[in-house]
Design a protein that fits this description.
By secondary structure, this protein is mainly alpha-helical. The chain folds into two domains: about 25-130, Histone Acetyltransferase, Chain A (Up-down Bundle); about 140-225, no CATH class. Helices cover about 50% and strands about 5% of the residues. It contains nine helices and two strands, in the order αααααααββαα. The protein has a two-stranded antiparallel sheet. Helix 7 runs antiparallel to helix 8. The protein is elongated and about 75 Å long. It comes from Triticum turgidum subsp. durum (Durum wheat). It holds the Pfam family Bromodomain. InterPro entries: Bromodomain, Bromodomain-like_sf. This is Bromo domain-containing protein. Keywords: Bromodomain.
């Protein structure tokens, strides 16, 4: 026995995350997630959960009637590599589902149950340090001050996206005496989220450019298209 595959659908809209992560810090947080996932997969029992459960194996014909949302660590790895997680909480949810499914389908006396329980404990121990970086959102005034300082430094094309967002809220971004100034007084928290994702996109571009020269990067094309998506993704579990 052991693992699983596809995602459940995500309802439309942009629900607020239960924890806040500054968008520009997202790549670093997901890198910590990757390291933790590698630790799980390299464990002596990690292979059990590395692929979707093969329901054609004898005795597993009822698997999908018992487990409605299959998941496995191999699928989690692919989603990380393809930048499908826009929030570390979504990564954690998939890992937990992998082990929860195994412990739901198998008896406590079974080796798979025991392996899932052991790996779940390892995950929760490692996740604690990642979770510590997910904090309550800073005050709106502090977010506005940071954005006023950083938005003018965006690449020209991303500044263009910022202008569009500004027009939607009746604000403005313009050059005054040779210096770009930003009016964020009318920006609510949802709008601030959008601007922070622009900063994140700029950061991710830099990471991609540096990574082109690294032999360790896989599926670079998928990363580029995911990170430079024209839709301004928000911090919620939009796993596709």
């Amino acid at each position: 026995m052991a693992s699983q595959s596809s995602p459940a659908g995500v309802p439309p809209g942009f629900p607020k995350p239960t924890n806040y992560l500054a968008a520009a810090d997202l790549p670093r947080a997901l890198e910590h997630c990757r390291v933790l996932l590698d630790e799980l997969l390299q464990h002596e029992d990690g292979w059990v959960f590395a692929k979707p459960v093969d329901t054609y194996e004898p005795g597993l014909g009822d698997y999908h009637s018992e487990i409605r949302q299959p998941m496995d660590l191999g699928t989690v790895r692919r989603r990380l590599e393809r930048c499908r997680y826009q929030n570390p909480l979504c990564f954690a949810s998939d890992v937990r589902r992998t082990f929860r499914n195994a412990m739901t389908y198998n008896y406590k006396r079974d080796d798979v149950y025991k392996s899932a329980d052991a790996l779940s404990r390892i995950f929760e121990s490692g996740w604690a340090s990642i979770s510590a970086t997910l904090q309550s959102p800073p005050p709106v005034a502090m977010r506005r001050a940071r954005l006023k300082d950083e938005l003018p430094r965006l690449p020209v094309d991303l500044q263009g996206k910022a202008v569009v967002i500004m027009k939607d809220i009746g604000g403005w971004i313009q050059e005054v005496d040779g210096r770009v100034e930003v009016d964020l007084d009318k920006a609510d928290e949802a709008t601030l989220d959008k601007f922070e994702w622009l900063l994140a996109l700029a950061t991710m571009r830099k990471v991609i450019i540096l990574s082109i020269w690294s032999p360790c990067v896989s599926d670079l094309g998928s990363i580029i298209f995911a990170m430079l998506d024209s839709n301004l993704v928000h911090l919620y579990c939009n796993v596709v």
